Amino acid sequence: MRKIGLCLLLCATLSWFSLAEEEKPLKIKSSLSPARLSKAQEGKVVLELAVEKGIAISSNPSFIIEFNPCEELIFPKNFFMASDLEIETIEENGHEYLNLKEPIKIPFTVSTKAKSGRHVLEGKIKYFARSTQEGWCLKVTSEFSASFYTRQTVLKKSKKS
């Protein structure tokens, strides 16, 4: 009987963690533009963020976007902060928060050593979510991924006269 109770408690705890994972205050839709890339081609990661109603994403402490290592793509930095990306800050009721209505675009270059085929870029955003009505603040990490395809060809840059 004791084992059954312990098992039920464990299942309830795991269900709570699964539910909590789904209820992140920031929803992320990620993609690469363009989705089909040649070696040496430049592109952008596009992150469209939707903030849950009644939640604001704090500008301080930091809002950080990190990418997992990806041999096919070269980024100018390992991580990006809101200030690096020039995300607009809005002040309301004595609090500053980020205006995330516009998509965030982060540049990259495809490595000349990239293997052709389908790949997945994964990353995460670390941020502080604040309830505008209840006043609580929560440190959260939300993960995202985007698939892309690399071609065998190398992009040749055109010479301008």
Care to describe what's here?
By secondary structure, this protein is mostly beta strands. The chain has a single domain, classed as Immunoglobulin-like (Sandwich), CATH 2.60.40.10. It has one helix and twelve strands, in the order αββββββββββββ. Strands 2, 4, 5, 7, 11 and 12 form a six-stranded mixed beta sheet that branches. A four-stranded antiparallel beta sheet has the order 1-3-10-6, with no helix packed on it. β11 and β12 form a beta hairpin. The N terminus is likely disordered.
CATH superfamily assignment? Immunoglobulins
Strand content: over 45%
Supply the helix-strand structural class: mainly beta
What is the helix/strand order? HEEEEEEEEEEEE
Summarize the structure.
This protein is mainly β and 161 residues long. The protein has one helix at residues 2-22, and strands at residues 26-33, 36-39, 42-51, 55-57, 64-67, 73-74, 79-81, 89-92, 95-98, 104-110, 117-131, 137-154. β11 and β12 form a beta hairpin.
Q: Features of this protein?
A:
elongated, 1 helix, Immunoglobulin-like, 161 residues, single chain, disordered N terminus
What is this structure's SSE topology?
Blueprint: H1 2-22, E1 26-33, E2 36-39, E3 42-51, E4 55-57, E5 64-67, E6 73-74, E7 79-81, E8 89-92, E9 95-98, E10 104-110, E11 117-131, E12 137-154
Parallel strand pairs: 2-12
Antiparallel strand pairs: 1-3, 3-10, 4-11, 5-7, 5-11, 6-10, 8-9, 11-12
